[in-house]
Design goal:
The chain has about 110 residues and is α+β, with helices and mostly antiparallel strands. The chain is built from two helices and five strands; from the N terminus they run αβββαββ. The protein has a five-stranded antiparallel beta sheet, covered by helices on one side. The site of zinc ion has 6 residues, from helix 1.
Length: about 110
Amino acid sequence: MSDCIFCKIVDGDIPSDKVYEDDRILCFRDLDPQAPVHVLMIPKKHISSCDDISDDDAELAGYMLSMVKKIAADLDLEKGYRVVVNNGEYGQQTVPHLHLHILGGRKMTWPPG
Ligand code: 5GP
Ligand code: ZN
């Protein structure tokens, strides 16, 4: 997707503070962190949102979740963390490229706003 911010980050056209990368996913620090640690995990493949995860993407989506614990460990989030996926208008999704927010470094509150 040529006009997608996160695809541009994957391609290196927009710089990012990367914390992990492999052939399928990229993790980088959020530009506007909402916690002491706030990292985004994205698939390198453009998938617009949770609603757009196809059956063919199931393995990739599972891989993303399976990698969260490694990223959390790398970021010293042993006391816990939160994983958030905003979806669509009411979910307040602002970037239409699937991403997991990984937030930590402080105790989270509940319910979310
Ligand atoms: P959403 O609101 O879609 O769930 O989350 C999008 C996130 O992407 C926001 O937390 C926002 O701060 C972050 N973001 C938007 N543009 C950029 C960017 O160019 N670089 C980085 N590192 N984060 C971005
Ligand atoms: Zn994209």
